[in-house]
């Protein structure tokens, strides 16, 4: 008998090979960001990509499948650092879509466990649902004795896909670490020290309806999940997943960073917890960034930021002051790379994304920690044990300290955090943005939902006109049968060529023409499954029973169509030049311009943007075909089409491909309108690149006639500049450099002249200084080109006269400016320049203040300078006399 698989790589291969021998096709895993499923932040299970098959929304490509799915869960982040919890893990799964069921699934799980893994049968316990006698019989058939089959109610052994949908009992398989304790009273579901659950088989046989009732599914399904980390712990004889080969190289590096002999058992409890958390969080972050997540303050990016900052904080508590995450990321890629080659390909991006986040946090962590420690000290002495929500929010908003980390730090000192107060502060900050945001496709509207579903057939991919009939007309007063000229309204048609805003493309504009009137469409949106044409009647009237001719504005459609195709080309071009980590984060497609947001960590050099532009325009000149086809979501992904995280896709999707035969230059899931050939774009020109948020950049660009007009305008401007400078356009740069050098020389001469004039002026003022006792007093209007020059004059006078008090005024940019300055000995004697200048400026209708030795102020009316200096003279004499 061959040796059982021991390493994680061997276990993966053994699982896949076992089911491949039983006619299962290995399907590619999803990325950690679920594609086409905006209901969850992350991929949390192997079955997630198969939801449409289990719910009957789509037909599966195969009846039997197996996957190795990387997954991420956020429920236990604060627990990471103990011996068992982790956020990122790999799930081995086998699936049946209406093919085999309980008997085969259970028999194969037993065969893999005992024959391939070679687990001792007496160490295996299983759990089943109370009423699942079929599963009981199947397990008895394999040889599992009655006393090792444990029945539980639905709280432990029943799985629901949601309030409504497929569901069924499940059976779990446990490994017994202490069989010598016997079977009497054994409770695998509750005894986590003795038993480790390593495989869960969901037996989907029912459908739950809205009233909670269950009926049998016409086709029964199997969904299983076996945690690779847990199987590895069993196969390698370890009690903790952190002792397996999965974590070992990362753990060793973390231990070296902390400076503790973890594997030798000489790390303290605190050090051990930090080492495990650092290892797990770095590994999880590597997987997340590899799948396109970048640190941010929202959604997935916030979770990534949270685990990275937690790792840094826990390391800091153990005395690690220098950046270290790059070392753990390298170790993580080294271990994960063979199974996930995309991590090797994205190594540089992953290192920069995680390293940049670590640098940002290290810059603020010290200040955040000091503020929190002072806050806890103050609260403790006030007899309080709750950190106010607004204080926790300030730590988050100003210093980037995640609320979860604040809560964890506070708990060490027996403090709790006012979570409701924090959420209220966060809500106040986000309210305006949240109110403005809507999901693509529009929100739910009861007035539209009530009209049913027989309407809004979209014909605009191939047409810009069409015959239609209004289904509903909504005016301010509600549904209307007729609207007249000047009335604003919304119209829903039975079919329409008007594209509703979506995928970044703005909604179409145009006309709805009937025999009795014309309705001008100013915008088209989608809501509650309806395509809504918003605008007003500009001629005659529009009736609900009219025959309508819908006419999209051709110029508008042509512009947005060109720009939408241009965004696809730019997306592919950016991925080609900057790297495959580039992914669309948002876009705006209008008729005259386009905007495209994408993941990238730093400013893209102009040279790189020029390469992108050159690549795209080359494809335009080649006049490549732009084609689209309808296919299943899974087939589109298998074919390499790009889908966008957070977008919702149905069973059938539209794929837009640019590039012709073979591998297309661009392939994306897209419902927007596009040109037929790239040559229709004319050209594309990138205007600028800028930052949107951490890890997200934005380019703005033009295409077609808009790009042509812009470049012609720029050329004309260049010609005019060349004519004004009497030089050919090709020599403009050299000419401008010459002018700049000449200007710099002249400025230097002016500065020298001003300094000489200031020195002469300073000497004259010093000579005319008034003596008040042993002090010199200068109160005078002066010449100064700037406030800095005025202060420099005061400094020069103080060097010439000791002790001295100076009250100076000048007109700078048509406004009075005042400076009061005193030498240190006078300040020590009680003279305060700030108090004096305040009264001086007030006399001229202005205000100001400053330090005891130097203060400045300003006013609006130069005519008030004489009165201000008179006030300054009297205040200065009084200050000198009161010493």
Jot down its keywords.
5 domains; alpha+beta; Elongation Factor Tu (Ef-tu), domain 3; BirA Bifunctional Protein, domain 2; nine-stranded mixed β-sheet; nine-stranded antiparallel β-sheet; 25 helices; 25% strand; single chain; 883 residues
Describe this structure in words.
This protein has 883 residues and is of the alpha+beta class. It folds into five domains: 8-243, BirA Bifunctional Protein, domain 2 (2-Layer Sandwich); 248-436; 446-552, Elongation Factor Tu (Ef-tu), domain 3; 560-709, Threonyl-tRNA Synthetase, Chain A, domain 2, CATH 3.30.980; 769-881, Diaminopimelate Epimerase, Chain A, domain 1, CATH 3.10.310. Helix content is 40%, strand content 25%. The chain has 25 helices and 35 strands. The chain is globular and about 115 Å long. The N and C termini lie far apart (103 Å). 42% of the residues are buried.
CATH H-level superfamily of the largest domain: Bira Bifunctional Protein, Domain 2
Measured by DSSP, the beta-strand proportion falls in 25-35%
Gross CATH architecture of the largest domain: 2-Layer Sandwich
Tally of helical runs? 25
Instruction: Report the average pLDDT across residues.
Output: 90
Poorly predicted spans: 432-442
- The number of distinct structural domains comes to 5
- Morphology call: globular
Task: Summarize the model shown.
The chain has 883 residues and is α+β, with helices and mostly antiparallel strands.
